[in-house]
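Board notes (copied after class):
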Amino acid sequence: MKSPKLSPWFILLALMACVVVASCQAADVIAVATETPAKPVTVSYGNLSMKANEYRTFDDVWNLTKGDLTLSYDLDLTGINSNIKEQTAWTSVGITGGAKGWMSSGAPRTLYQDPKAEDWVDKHFLKSMDNQDERSYDATSPIVVSTPFGTYSSYGLWFDRNGIDPQQLANWGMIDGTTYNTAGKYKIVVTFHAIDAKSGTMFATVNGVQTGFYTTSWLNEKPDIYPAGKSIAGDLTKVQVQANQWTPSAQFGIARLANITVTGFLAAGAGK
C-alpha cells in the first residue's frame, strides 16, 4: 500500500507550527530565567563625628519584609564623659520612619575607672522608644517575642575601658579587649528582622558579644536568656537609617562613628 502524498501546503503549515511552538518554548525559558529574586545591596554611609543633639537621617528607604537589614559601625566613646550623677551623652544608631529601633550607647561611669577592678563604664542597649531601659528586652529569637524579661543582671550591655581584678579574669564571658580593656572603642552590629509587615525584632552584638540576661541575679555562667533582643513595630516596608547624639550638655563630649554600613533590601523605587 502506498503512503498518501502530502500536499506542499500541508508540509509548509506543519513547519510553521513547529517554529511557533519552538519560539514559545524559548520565550518561556527566557521568562523563567529573568524572574530572579531580589538581591540585598550594601550601602556605606561613611564616618560621622556627632555633635551635641545632632540628628542625621540617611535618604535610602529599606524594606525589611524582603529580608533582614544589617547595620554595622565602629563607635569611639573616648571623647564621652559623665558626672557624679552618671549623666552622659547618648549616641543612637538604628532605623526610623515606618518603624523605630536603635542601639543606644553612652558612658555613664567614666568617673569610676580603676585598671585593677571591674568597673563597667560604657553601656550599649537596644531601644524602640524613649524612656526604655534593658528591662524592656522581650525577644528570645528573631521570630519569638514574649513579655519583657530584661533585668539589671545582664551580660553584653556594660563594658570596661581598662583592666579588671585578676581574680575575675576567669569569670564566664570575660574577654580581654572585648568586654574589658576596650579603650572605649566598639564594633557594633544590629540585625533587624521582619516577622511580618508590621512587627519584627532586632538583635545586636558589641565587639562580637551578644546580650544576655540572668532572670534573678548574676551567676558565673552563661545567662539564663542568651541571646536576647527586642521587638519593633510599625511599617517595616519603609524604614531609614538614622544616627543622633543626645546630651544634657555639650560638656559631655562627642562620639565618633566610622564605617557605617547597611546591607539589606531597598524599598521599591528607592534603588541606588
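Comment from the instructor: Confidence is low (pLDDT under 50) at residues 9-15, 17-35. Residues 40-264 form a domain with the Jelly Rolls fold (CATH 2.60.120).
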